[in-house]
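Today's session is about reading a structure prediction critically. Students often jump straight to the picture, but the first step is always the sequence itself: look for stretches that repeat, for charged clusters, for runs of hydrophobic residues. Only then move on to the predicted structure, which in these notes is written as discrete structure tokens rather than atom positions. Here is the chain we will use throughout the hour.
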Amino acid sequence: MRRLLSPMLLGILCGSAATAEPMKVTAEALKDLVDSKNSEVVAARKELAAAESRSGSLARSFIPSIEVYAAQESMKMGRDERKNQPAYGAELKVNLLNGGQDLLTSESRHLEVKRRGVGVKRRISSELFEARQLYWQI
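Below is the predicted structure for this chain, in token form.
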């Protein structure tokens, strides 16, 4: 585990080496470095954003939708004259709570957002703990 963490911390601390700018690393700056440059933390934040985008609103599922269509079919057989067959209509769709399933889905998605938020905080604290340990050993 220690072999994996040392290159990871060096990658975080020396991430700006490609730009050839010197970077002063202090114990106070470790939190900002881990928060912005650690791939585990960035991935956890993206998972949280994905869960938030899926959550939505329960009220939104009750907004009716309407579809309007129109078509025309033209037929000709043999010597008969051409016949036109128009078709048109409208369709209105309304959600009727689906036996409470919509409410349960909404609640589970909100709980997933909370769980991912806690996961981000946990990931930041564990990565920061490891970075501080390695910082004080160097």
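Discussion point for the tutorial: The chain has four helices and two strands.
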